[in-house]
Structure formats: structure tokens, C-alpha cells
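The freezer alarm interrupted the setup, so I double-checked each line after restarting. Inputs confirmed:
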Amino acid sequence: MELGTATQLITRLIILWLLSERPLHGYRIKRILADVALRHWFPIETGSIYSVLKTLAAAGLVETEIVEREGQRPERTQFRITQAGREHYRELLRRAWTEVGRSSESFHLALAARSDLDESEIPELLAIRVKSLRQRISELEMASNSAPALAMVEHSRALTLADLTWTESELEKLNNRGATTSDI
Amino acid sequence: MELGTATQLITRLIILWLLSERPLHGYRIKRILADVALRHWFPIETGSIYSVLKTLAAAGLVETEIVEREGQRPERTQFRITQAGREHYRELLRRAWTEVGRSSESFHLALAARSDLDESEIPELLAIRVKSLRQRISELEMASNSAPALAMVEHSRALTLADLTWTESELEKLNNRGATTSDI
DNA sequence: GATTGATTAGTCAATCTTGACTATAATGGA
DNA sequence: TCCATTATAGTCAAGATTGACTAATCAATC
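Predicted 3D structure, all chains:
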């Protein structure tokens, strides 16, 4: 079975990841993913959960386990990962380990289109970016550090730091240039 | 006017970016974006171009300039950015400069779900990742270096290098551990 | 002048994604 | 006891995205 977009890959991967541990119903998945720690890393909308479950079921990667109800609560459909699902999941995981994402960042467009804003705006904008990056880093430092999360956090921190370094040096270049031009 | 997904933001931004320079028709945009250098950074599918143009037109950010034909070729609808479109464009650019993307990477899931693959697979997978990252870096080094592209390339290179460093150190940790365990 | 292949300009059905909304049940407080 | 609030479990219409496909023209070759 083929996958479409990058979004789709990650969404399926997340659902399969949760189901690989134990059978779950849609709403439970929704609640698990709503947890602050997870939502931050893997944001998925409510609708997508059910949509993806449906697709996975159609592909035989997941199957309806039971339709049960607790007390007079609404019915809920529990899903269980199949053998095929487990194999697919592990295959997706291998790809996730090896493939380097080609995320098209809007910041890159900003750089390419630099001349479309007043050059005088750029230092302020970069300063805001620096602030955002610092904020992100401090968030990461306070992040929960259970063992598996730790690697994620550290990887993310390393990349964000590199971004910060780059951005700061760009900003400094501008400030120096600005200083020399106006001081002479 | 509000924007939905991150995908949507970048797609609109790209189209507005191209239109900010001169009026274009859909197919021309398609060809411009099909160029290797651009496709690499900002991949957009054919269908999305026309879809986004339609949305932008409905929002008054873009207007149909002329429907012309060259010789007996099919008609083509040319679009021109409006004043509102220019303002929106510049606003999106400011956001692109300042906002730090929260891209949900599947590699992070791979790290979180590390125990779902055999630990013995991990070194090979990391080695492949290292190779992919090296490849990406050498691609970036050969990349076209017109002035606006340069900043993009350097930023990307800095982040990819940080990723490489992180991944290599992770791999080395594993190799050392493997060596000591099996050598004693 | 016929055939083949590339180019042009875009369409559209299938699929995916979003998030506001529904309908019921349990809970807490006055 | 009654009412408001929150929790449960999901639906669905509206919008976004994909990419294979169409239908015509032009260019080159046989």
C-alpha cells in the first residue's frame, strides 16, 4: 500500500504507534493526543483520527475489535492493529529513521523574497525570530524527559540551536553593517 | 482572512511571491515551479496551483487579468496580484520571517518508538540516515548560489549539519556500546 | 503528408483534512 | 432536587490536495 503526502505518513504512523501498544477507540486516541506533551510534537485534528482509522481499516492494517459501551455512554468502536498492520508500522518506522525530511519552510521563502520587504524591517523581524527560537529552546529544556522523549527533545534542541546560531549571526551582520554605514 | 494549514500558508505564499513580480497564468507558474532548483525547495503539485489561484481570486487577493491565447493554443487565464494581495503577501512574509515552524517530523516518532524495532537494527538505520544527510549536504553545496538563494542554502546547510552531528554522535554511542559489550 | 512525440493549458474525480457541531450521560453545586 | 457544566464518542459538510488524464497544437522525422 502506498502513502500520499508527508502529512499522511506521519498521521498513520502516530495512530499505528498508539495501536501497536494496545487496542483503542477513536475518542481515546483523541484524548491521548490531546495531552500537552504529545500535542506539541504530533498535532492531529479530531477528524483526522477517525478518517485515518477508516483508511487503515480499509487497508486491513487495523480491524474493528468490538463495539462496546460503558454504562449508558455512547457506543465506541475499538480498533486493534493486525499482523499486516504491524509489518506496515515497522516498515514506516524504518523509513522514518532513515529518510531526511524535505520540509518546505516558509522561512526559506522569506529569505528568497527578502527584497520584497523594506530592508529596514529585516533586523526587527530577525530579532523577533531570535526571540521565538530562544523561547522554543527554553521550552525544550523544560520538556518532560522520560527516556524515549529525551532523544526527541535533544535532537530538536540541537537543530533549534543551530537555527538560533545562524539567525543571530545574520542579525549581527546586519547590525554591524547598519552601524558602520550610519556612523561614518 | 485566515489561513488553515501550514501547507496552505506556504503554497499561497509561493504563488503570491511569483505573482508579486509579474502577472502569470497557471501553466506558467507550473513551469516555473517545475524548475529543478525551485521544485526542490518549494514543491507544489499542478492541481494545487489552480486551486490556490481560485481561492486567492475569491478572496480578492488576485484578479483575472486577461484571458488570452497565443496562436491557436488553448486559452489561458492570466492572474495579477491586487493591492490587497500585496498587503497580504507582505504580512505573510513577516510571519514567515518571525515564526518558528513546528514541523512534526517522523524522525521524532521513530525516536519515541525506538523500542518497537529490534535494537540491533538501529545502527544500520542510523548509518543510512547519516548517508542521507551527507548526501543532502553535498547537494546543498553544489546548489545554485545566486544571492537570494545563498541565504536559503546556508540556513538549510547549517541545520542539516547540526542534524548530521547529532545523528553521528548517536551512532557512535551505539557502536562504542556494541564494541564494549561484545569485546569483553 | 502522415505519424510520432513533445508542449501547452488546464480539468476533475478521488481522496484527505479540518474543526465546529451533535447528542447523550455523568458530575457538582446551590 | 434541579440546573449548569463538563465529559464522552464521534459525525459531517466544507474546503484542500493530488496527479492521472484530456484535448488540442506545434515540431520533427520519415
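Quick read of the result. Chain B touches chain A through 65 residues (CB under 8 Å).
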